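Hey everyone, long-time lurker, first post.

I ran two proteins through the pipeline my lab uses and got sequence/structure pairs for each. Pasting them in order. The first:
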Amino acid sequence: MRKDVTLNAIIKGGDKINKSALARQYGCCWETIDRRLNPDKYKRERKKRIYTSILDKYKVLIDEKIENNNIPATGIYFLLKEKYNYEGKYGIVRKYVSEKKKNIINELTIRFETIKGYQSQVDWKEKIKLHDIYENEYVISIFLIVLGNSRYKYIELTFDQTQSTLFSCLINAFKYFGGSTKEILFDNMKTIVDHAKSTYTNVIINSKAEQFSKDVGFKIVTCRPYRPRTKGKVETLAKIMNRLKAFDKEFKNWNELNDIVKKLNYNLNYEEKSQATNEIPNILFQKEKEYLIPVNVDILKNYYIPEKTYKVSNESMITYKGIKYSVPIQYVGKQITVLDEDNVIHLYYNTKLIYSYNKNKKYKYNYKENDYVEILKNSSFDKKTNEEIDKFIINNLESMDQINIERK
């Protein structure tokens, strides 16, 4: 019979054990017996080998530089060498920076790819120049938002990229989706980020955007420059918008161009497979929409002012809130769109910005100098020279309290 089996039987018997007697019986020392009786007493914890690196004391600094500024390894190496007396080799820095960036991107990719209703991404496709069949030029912007999981999209043609327009487009997107994701990722656009108060390490969201997000129920996340794949979904959509260039000189007016954009939006959601998921977005959206946050759009109406159009009178002016503003005489009889933003109003014809006026209730009549000259030339002053007209403006009109003439 094996000695260890007999010893186990003795231990389990529960009788008082004479360790020395057992040691003599089995031809071993009493410590061997004690070790079998009290194994926990003799357990030794293996000491983990601690690896150190010459970079250890710099890693917090390096991480901050990578996360906030996307500094390349060469830049970090130069900083450590010149300012912090780093004596290691460049290869160590390069390896650490490469692994750090890879880990961050992988973590974010997993996080944003797998969770339904978690995140959407917003961006603008800006300053696309198109012409209608009459050779009128349109400089357009397109609002873009993509749901991260399903790749379901909403796109909208806009005149500009003001904060009011951004809020309006987001509200329209919430209606289209049937809700909002828990996070919305933006780049550092000035309509979201307060650049005057922000630093690389501390991004401050402007107060109106922050309140808007709270009223909707989503969290604003800003995209840092070192994360090239984080905003990749909406950047892919921005590239797709280049398809619209094929319609240059192929549409009649703004309304027809808008219909083209809406048709493109439909095709992307219901007919074309996403290259990333190899699925039609609407199929995946049917599952993702259940995870969206419901949005009460009625409480959001104060965040934007709907566009209003005004007909230019024979005196080449529009009247907005009781105050008149001039436009060039070629717009007489046409409809001008007014966008009201803080202390400035913007006057558009189709998508072309004509003028921006500072609001000033002191003056009932607001003219651009070139406009006023042209208006005078086409009225009772048509027989006068330019010098006579200039003298008239200087000596007479500027002394009148109700008239303001802005010089370019």
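...and the second, right after it:
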Amino acid sequence: MPELPDITMYLEGLEARVLGRTLERVRLGSPFLLRSVDPPLADVHGREVVALRRLGKRIAIGLAERDGPRLWLVLHLMIAGRLRWRDPGVTIPRRLGLAAFDFAEGSLLLTEAGTKKRASLHVARGAEALARHDPGGIDPLTADPAVFRETLTARNHTLKRALTDPRLFSGIGNAYSDEILHRAKLSPIRWTSRLDDGEISRLREATRRTLDQWTRRLRDELAGEFPEKVTAFHDEMAVHGKYGRPCPDCAAPVQRIRYANNETNYCAACQTGGKVLADRALSRLLGRDWPRSLEALEALRSGGPPPAPEGDA
């Protein structure tokens, strides 16, 4: 799912191409994309784009007022939705295409891979209606230390869950939470209530530095081009999507915790004191034989005897 750095790149690409331009029409390739009925989609046709905004992982396109409040197009790309800048009047692909937003200068094409179409489009009228699409999380790049601490510790969650909760932190998802926690050298299952002041400060700094550095890196890679390969996996990431590969800091193999639709990646040596966190599928299979350390895991993989427990001869 596109996260804060990726959404920022989309907004910068849109700013250069559609801000101040007239949206001639919106063509739908799938009727399931549009999730609102009032105001009607036709009301946005022929209006000038006057604002662009990020609402968590959503993109909001503001259109000029006529006889009432500003209209907004609110796009949520979900996991597989992507935006592409194409020639004017581009044909919407039959299998992947969801919509085209037509301008005289080009068309913004919305596509979504996979069979489950989860991306959504809403039309909102006015600031109050737009605010209902904002999950409400703080901006992790600008929040001061007190606000960051208060938000993080308001409820007792694991760090992974807290960072990816859009009601707490705006724009952080599965990929960048892995990178943030690796930089902070903190376990993804550490409880927020058990962090000391130094760890909270380290997490805040890791959050700001990770998101800022990746935003600048993506911007440099694009060099003014419209983003075409927004993805959760980047070759230069430290741990996300790097299961089994060496950690760039200590060379220990990156571990994972698998869920239904995604996974958490982490370095046991850097983040959990060498403890291998239980993976739901494998821990059920292995039961008491689940390896609880990197040494035990390597012994299991190599077919050798497990290391003796601490305190045994």
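Reply from user beta_strand_b:
Welcome! Quick read of the second one: The longest helix spans residues 197-222. Residues 123 and 296 are 54 Å apart (CA to CA).
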